[in-house]
Amino acid sequence: MLPLSQQISSFFIFLSIILCLPYCFPARKVRDPEGKVKNIEIDSANLQRHSFSRLTHAGQGSRISGMSELKRYFHRFGYLPPQSGSNFTDEFDAELESAVATYQMRLGLQITRQLDPDTVLSLMSPRCGMKDKFPSSVHKKLFHVTRHYTFFQGMPRWERPQPVRLTYGFSPYHVIDKLSLDDVRAAFDRAFERWAQVIPVEFEESLDYETADVRIAFYLGDHGDGEPFDGVLGILGHSFSPEDGRLHLDGAEMWAVDFGTEPAPKAVDLESVATHEIGHILGLGHSSVKEAVMYPVLKPRTTKHDLALDDVEGVQTLYGSNPNYKLNSLSRQSETASNTAVSQWAMVPTELSVTISALVFALLGSSW
Q1: Helices (DSSP H) in the chain: which residue ranges?
Q2: pLDDT for 168-193, tens place per residue?
Q3: Predicted confidence band at 10 (pLDDT cuts at 50, 70, 90)?
Q4: Range among 3-7, 125-129, 158-162 rated most confident
Q5: Catalytic residue among 210, 277, 335, 351
Q6: Residues 99/74, Cβ–Cβ less than 8 Å
Q7: Most exposed among 13, 33, 335, 365, judged by the fewest C-beta atoms under 10 Å?
């Protein structure tokens, strides 16, 4: 019989391997719009992002292989300007330290200016594809003492007579076969209704996708809008500022509407992501409040449906309040609900989970 400490250690290593299995496979099968099955490769940047665990505890002056990929990640999401020829180095320089501190501030993390375990776990988590940082004209709003919501540059909104009426439609071609259309429609219906409850905006489904104000589609990889998807548990979705109306989700994800019937550890809640992306459609940027729907990161098997006060105040700044909305009907801190078997990483101490990730990566090599 092994000592208890060794049994616990063995259990965590086994658990980490199980949780990492989604990353151990280089491709998954999906159907294209013509119904043909094809393999979708996971983008190399996504694979690199899941190896950030090797950078844990790095600080200014460190030089570690893979640091250049972290810089590319920060560049993509607005924390680093492009360098000459985009030749990012593996050195943890002063510019990267500033980017790390800004990221920690924007994501509501402790500002250590180093790649501490909490920051690394956040960097490795699935997230929205929209940038977190905006031009200086709006930048003052990012770090308001009590308000953490943000907007797109110029604070665009849908300009319609009050009450605003918007239609939304689903692409008949860019779909997924994991969920039925009825399940997808129901999830989006609930998500739209949640926003409509707090602002004077009405949403109605249209059967004409091409003429709808909001156009919803599932895409794979590079789909022509300059924001390519990167495979399982990478970029979950993105949408564009008013009045563009495009709302895109990564068709490679394991989308789910009920974790009770979907046991996959890599499952992502469709309604949570839909609610978040609709916030962008309405004109909101990302929030630094972890409980907010507009927080950019969402872990697998986690649901976040209810609007937080920060979400409500932000969207009401753009559109005003629904006359039927009452502030006391909203909790001041929206609770992030999780399935009882979900968010398994929360069961493991943060530093230990990152250490285990590094161990698994070393054992599995580039296949992770």
Answers
A1: 4-24, 44-49, 67-76, 94-106, 117-124, 136-139, 181-196, 270-282, 309-319, 350-364
A2: 999 999 999 999 999 999 999 999 99
A3: very low
A4: 125-129
A5: 277
A6: yes
A7: 365
Q: Give the CA distances from residue 211 to residues 13, 201, 215, 246, 272, in Å, rounded to whole numbers and listed in that order.
A: 52, 18, 8, 12, 25
Q: What is the pLDDT of residue 133?
A: 63
Helices 181-196, 270-282: inter-axial angle, 10-degree rounding: 50
Residue 146 host element (H or E):
none
Instruction: Take residue 297 and report the two structure tokens written for it.
Output: 């990161």
- Residues with Cβ within 8 Å of 262's Cβ and at least 6 positions away in sequence, in order, are 254, 256
Is 277 one of the catalytic residues? Answer: yes
DSSP 265-280: TTEEEHHHHHHHHHHH
List the structure tokens of 168. 């939304």
3-state secondary structure of 103: helix
CB-facing half-sphere around the CA of 322: CA atoms within 13 A: 18
Q: Please report the domains of the chain, with CATH numbers, ordered by start residue.
A: 4-125+345-367 (no CATH), 128-338 (3.40.390.10)
Q: What is the pLDDT of residue 348?
A: 36
Token reading at 8: 């616990």
pLDDT in tens, 257-291: 999 999 999 999 999 999 999 999 999 999 999 99
Which DSSP letter does residue 340 get?
T
* C-beta separation of 86 from 61 below 8 A: no
**Nearest residue to 108 via CA among 233, 286, 234:** 286
- The total of other beta-carbon atoms located within 10 Å of residue 226's CB is 6
